[in-house]
Design brief:
Elements (H helix, E strand, L loop, with lengths): L5 H6 L18 H6 L3 E6 L6 E2 L6 H9 L7 H36 L5 H13 L7 E7 L4 H10 L4 E11 L5 E12 L2 H6 L26 E10 L7 H35 L13 E3 L5 E8 L2 E5 L5 E6 L2 H8 L20
Parallel strand pairs: 1-3, 1-4, 2-4, 6-10
Antiparallel strand pairs: 4-5, 5-6, 7-8, 8-9, 9-10
Helix pairs in contact: 3-4, 4-8, 5-8, 8-9
Length: 351
């Protein structure tokens, strides 16, 4: 069954996620990076806290499709039938989201003192200082991640470029895995930067035939990346209650360790990816592997207690199984292995 994260359910139409026909990743050209100085950074974290994934109901969608296929039902009745089916999905998903929240409430209570938004933005800001030849400013968190708000921010900016980094973090349906992801889109803002990216220098100029009409369509981003961090408990295959207990033990030690490590790894991977220009050689593949999402990926590194996978989309996934090495990497970002996200199979987020 198809599953989706809560955050994604709420923001599927947002620019901060992926455009349908636009490649998920796009390396940053050096001439654009040079012209886009400084780059203003907004870290979008819409969710207020950790959430649990749930299986998203699609039964209503199938029923809605069937409504239009009923001979003689009429347009109005078909529309009413479809709306009722959609409402059924919404009700089921709301109930499942609430149940997921109630299940992981003990974990939220354990980390109530963890200021995730502040820590995540600090990790990204610190990591970005390691990008040679680039200047980043205004690295702050925003809870408003709609297209309209992002466009307002972009238009008001006086920086050479604006980069939006949307962050999501949640536990898998069976509570065995913590997943954190960062989706970055950098838009050139100054006339020089836009020209270097092949865009009209004037923000209000008509779009060229090969450009998207929406100002912040992902197609107009000079840089796109997706990095994902997945930390798995060693007791895979156990019951969710056992996984919950493992995360909760010792005042949530494993959960805190994984969250801290994930922040550091996402920041590091983002920085490494930004520096990997269009002409840089691809990370060499050590072989094909099947990722947790059942998709084939290239194994490009095995280090720091985990595996770095690259999917055909260019997304990077860093996968680690918690153990003795996990705690060691939490404080010091390791130099090689955080991977962005590929489409997850059977995972749903409730927010």
């Amino acid at each position: 069954m198809y599953a989706l994260s809560r955050a994604a359910v709420a923001a599927l139409s947002a620019l901060s996620l992926v455009g349908c026909a636009t490649p998920l990743t796009q390396p940053l050209k050096r001439e654009v990076a040079t012209a886009a100085q400084p780059v203003e950074v907004k870290v979008g974290i819409r969710q207020p806290e950790l959430y649990g994934a749930f299986e998203v109901s699609r039964a209503g969608q199938a029923a809605a499709a069937g409504c239009g296929a009923i001979p003689g039902i009429g347009i109005l009745l078909a529309a009413a039938c479809g709306a009722a089916a959609g409402a059924m999905d919404a009700t089921i998903n709301a109930s499942r989201a609430k149940a997921a929240d109630e299940t992981i409430r003990p974990l939220k209570d354990e980390i109530v003192d963890l200021k995730f938004d502040q820590a995540m933005s600090s990790a990204i800001a610190k990591a970005l200082t390691n990008v040679p030849g680039m200047s980043f400013s205004g690295v702050v968190v925003t809870k408003e991640t709609t297209d309209a708000k992002y466009e307002e921010t972009y238009k008001a900016s006086t920086a050479g470029g604006v980069m939006f980094v949307n962050v999501d973090y949640h536990l898998s349906i069976d509570l065995s895995t913590l997943q954190m992801s960062a989706r970055a889109l950098l838009y050139p803002r100054s006339p020089a930067a836009r020209a270097a990216a092949g865009l009209p220098g004037d923000l209000n100029a008509p779009a060229a035939p090969n450009q998207a009409t929406a100002m912040l369509d992902p197609k107009n981003a000079a840089y796109r990346s997706m990095v994902v961090y997945r930390a798995k408990l060693p007791l895979q295959g156990k019951e969710p209650a056992e996984h919950l207990a493992a995360w909760k033990a010792d005042n949530g030690r494993l959960l805190r360790t994984s969250l801290n490590d994930g922040m550091a790894q996402l920041g590091r991977l983002l920085v490494e990816d930004i520096q990997r220009g269009p002409d840089a050689p691809a990370l060499p593949s050590l072989g094909k592997v099947e990722g947790d999402n059942r998709l084939q990926a290239d194994l490009v590194a095995e280090s720091h207690g985990g595996k770095l996978l690259r999917y055909p989309t260019g997304a990077l996934y860093f996968q680690t199984t918690l153990g003795g090495t996990a705690a060691a990497t939490a404080q010091a970002p390791a130099a090689g292995g955080t991977a962005p996200a590929a489409p997850a199979a059977n995972t749903a987020t409730a927010r």
